[in-house]
């Protein structure tokens, strides 16, 4: 390869597609959509958000996420309450059942990830996870070079 490496996106994209595909049967088994899991995951880390802030955080259009929130609320996985300071806004919080479902899905997903990560020597695996955590925490502006 002439001392050159492949672009990060060229290396990450196929891995991401395969990991997402591996998650689909797990999500189906637990009765969740990918967006439903993304919402529960975001709420598990920050249990109360406005719908607008949640949509922005997960990179979803706030009008398109309503159906996902409705489904999760109907399944008792999250609850929405009106913001007393702004009646147009709603707070979204994960329920105990939502947290249980999220944790079960995450455990099943990570069981497969552990199998994949086992392909790396232990030191490389630890370095990969640390590096991935550091890079994924970068603000978009740093990646875009703004």
From TrEMBL:
<dbReference type="Pfam" id="PF12802">
    <property type="entry name" value="MarR_2"/>
</dbReference>
<dbReference type="InterPro" id="IPR036388">
    <property type="entry name" value="WH-like_DNA-bd_sf"/>
</dbReference>
<keyword id="KW-0238">DNA-binding</keyword>
<dbReference type="InterPro" id="IPR039422">
    <property type="entry name" value="MarR/SlyA-like"/>
</dbReference>
<dbReference type="InterPro" id="IPR036390">
    <property type="entry name" value="WH_DNA-bd_sf"/>
</dbReference>
<protein>
    <submittedName>
        <fullName>Winged helix DNA-binding protein</fullName>
    </submittedName>
</protein>
<feature type="domain" description="HTH marR-type">
    <location>
        <begin position="5"/>
        <end position="137"/>
    </location>
</feature>
<dbReference type="GO" id="GO:0003677">
    <property type="term" value="F:DNA binding"/>
</dbReference>
<dbReference type="InterPro" id="IPR000835">
    <property type="entry name" value="HTH_MarR-typ"/>
</dbReference>
């Amino acid at each position: 390869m002439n001392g050159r490496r492949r672009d990060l996106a060229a290396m990450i994209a196929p891995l991401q597609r395969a990991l997402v595909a591996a998650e689909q049967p797990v999500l189906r088994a637990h009765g969740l959509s990918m967006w439903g899991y993304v919402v529960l995951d975001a709420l598990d880390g920050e249990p109360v958000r406005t719908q607008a802030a949640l949509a922005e955080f997960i990179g979803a259009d706030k009008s398109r996420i309503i159906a996902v929130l409705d489904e999760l609320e109907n399944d008792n996985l999250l609850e929405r309450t009106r913001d007393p300071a702004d009646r147009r806004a709603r707070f979204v919080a994960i329920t105990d059942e939502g947290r249980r479902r999220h944790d079960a899905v995450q455990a099943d997903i990570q069981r497969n990830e552990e199998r994949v990560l086992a392909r790396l020597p232990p030191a490389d695996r630890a370095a990969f996870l640390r590096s991935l955590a550091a890079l994924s925490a970068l603000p978009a502006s740093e990646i875009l070079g703004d």
